[in-house]
Amino acid sequence: MNKESANSLTARIVIGMIAGIGLGLLFKAMLPKDGDLIIPLGLFDFYVRGFFVDGIFEIGGQIFVTSLKMLVVPLVFVSLVCGTCSLTDTSKIGSIGGRAIGLYLITTAIAITIAIFAGLLVAPGEGVNMTSEVTFAAAEAPTLAQVIIGMFPSNPFDAFAKGNMLQVIVFALLFGIAVALAGEAGERISKQFEDLNEVIMRLVVILMNLAPYGVFCLMTTLFVKLDPSAFANLAAYFFTVLGVLILHALLTYPTLLKVLTGLNPIIFIKKMRTTAMFAFSTASSNATIPSTLNTTTKKLGVGNSIASFTVPMGATINMDGTAIMQGVATVFIAQVFNVDLTVTDFLMVIVTATLASIGTAGVPGVGLIMLAMVLAQVGLPVEGIGLIIGVDRLLDMVRTAVNVTGDSMVTVVVGKAEGQFNQDVYNSVDDTRGDRIDFHHLKDK
Question: How high is the pLDDT of residue 231?
Fold first, then answer.
């Protein structure tokens, strides 16, 4: 998705959100809590509530939510298999891959942990007390051993059918490793999965282009039922996520860089400005890969043999910004629907979101599909996504900038550890060379 279409999609989703809120408030004014119209007009009540609120808009919103859930299993499975199959170069599988993957998962776990604590501290959804048609039966919390054992499927097809994403993720990783080790047969299978991944990503693009209409329907029905106090709650959610994103980018990454390499983190932040702004404008980690590669090699001094491996990998598995959204959103939706989450639930969110980040493709809006999976894992209503989807496109641009900053930080750490790092380039005050990207060469490739 190019810059112009991404910006257009952002504008259309915001328009859909505003229009849905306005129409929902209008319906709410005409249909007070007691169910009587302010102006009695006979069958008008039937048309407003029955035909529009509980009819057209309810159907449209639920179709959109169901479509989100429809893509979860195939998107995660195919993307994970493709990502694992890409680790076929034995010279790169080892210390480089181990360090990169380990750091990416650690930063993601840190990100979502901070997000959950921030959500609990700020409590953006406290006091709304919305209800959902989904019923929740209190179940005994499983032990940690049961959780670990339950990650491994006895029947992968059963895991697909039931949407047990932890089992799907584990099976996808094992299957991808087997494909990578299968020689020529594995190469043929890998190409088929790459083609299938392209098709699924087309589905994602189609769904995200229909998002403005889904948002309109969801916001209309939700704001008919929503208490006015929830407006302040939505603003609290937005600024909580934004605050954690900024904190993670300006504190967590520089701290890890300083501790693991001893390098000056201020230089790193300054040299990331252009790439971060490019990521912000495109809202796509994949679209930012050329800029990220130029920054890490030309400005930060990392060897191309390292950056060419860790940067594309980071665009696939390093989704700290998405994990932050998922953490705060899970707490927010749980508070809105007055559902108490246990410590085991929060641990499940951390594990699920961290592992799911491996399968989160670097394109705009796909984080919402992952959020649907996380919510389902802890028994929260997926319909709650409608509360945040309107502002999510705005946050999507910020978290993409956070993601590529994390990709670059890990690349520097791995490059220095592997001896593929030029500290003179890193410390150089001239950082304009990295901005001159050879687009003609990239096109030829």
Answer: 58
Of residues 404, 424, 402, 439, the one with CA closest to residue 300:
424
For residues 399 and 340, give the distance between their C-alpha atoms in angstroms, rounded to a whole number: 27
C-alpha–C-alpha distance, residues 335 and 113, integer Å:
17
Exposure string for 275-300, b = 16+ CB within 10 A, e = fewer? bbebbbbbbbbbbbbbbbbbbbbbbb
CA distances (Å), origin 80, targets 76, 85, 177, 202, 330: 6, 8, 10, 17, 23
Q: What is the pTM of this model?
A: 0.62
pLDDT tens-place string over residues 353-369: 776 665 555 445 566 66
CA 170 from chain centre, in angstroms, equals: 19
Name the residue among 311, 312, 411 with its Cα closest to residue 99: 411
Contact 290, 276 (CB under 8 A): no
Domains of the chain are: 3-444 (1.10.3860.10)
Whole-number Å distance between alpha carbons of 280 and 249 = 13
Q: Which residue has the tokens 């700020």?
A: 122
List % helix, strand, coil for the chain (3-state, nearest 5): 75, 0, 25
Q: What are the pLDDT digits (tens) for 201-219?
A: 777 767 767 778 887 887 7
